[in-house]
Amino acid sequence: MEQEETRAIRTEQWLYMERINNQNINFLHPELYDLRNDPLEYKNLAEEIKYKSIIETLSEKLHDYFKSHSNPKFDLWNGGKAKSNVSSETFWKKIWGEDWSCT
């Protein structure tokens, strides 16, 4: 799943969400939820060290998926343009520079 600055992967047990971060913006933190024990996603486990290997595995799968399936022209995470519109053009210009445009 992708929604602009957020990409996510869901398994039977886990929901992992990663936010875009680069040299211009680095305050968006990942989230990890144990869907078996917390189906309403109240407790973010991403900061707990004991889940580090789960996060690494899910992050790798997430990046592999988008590497294989994204059209570079529309890959916002790598400087691409949006197919239609974005919720905050200012946000993306902060990441990719003032020359970036939606389409």
Q: What tags apply to this protein structure?
A:
single chain; 103 residues; alpha+beta; Arylsulfatase, C-terminal domain; 4-stranded antiparallel β-sheet
Fold and architecture overview:
The mean pLDDT is 87. The protein has helices at 52-69, 89-96; strands at residues 2-3, 6-10, 14-19, 31-34. It has a domain at 2-70: Arylsulfatase, C-terminal domain (2-Layer Sandwich), CATH 3.30.1120.10. With 103 residues, it is an alpha+beta fold. Strands 1-2-3-4 form a 4-stranded antiparallel beta sheet, covered by helices on one side.
Outline:
The chain is an alpha+beta fold. The chain has two helices and four strands, in the order ββββαα.
Topology at a glance:
Blueprint (H helix, E strand, L loop, with lengths): L1 E2 L2 E5 L3 E6 L11 E4 L17 H18 L19 H8 L7
Antiparallel strand pairs: 1-2, 2-3, 3-4
CATH class placement of the domain at 2-70: Alpha Beta
Helical content (DSSP H or I, runs of 4+): 25-40%
**Main sheet specs:** 4 strands, antiparallel
Along the chain, the helix and strand elements come as: EEEEHH
Radius of gyration, in Å, reads 15 Å
> Architecture of the domain at 2-70, CATH level 2?
2-Layer Sandwich
CATH topology of the domain at 2-70: Arylsulfatase, C-terminal domain
Strand content: 15-25%
- Low-pLDDT residue intervals, each spanning 5 or more residues: none
Q: What do the pLDDT scores average to?
A: 87
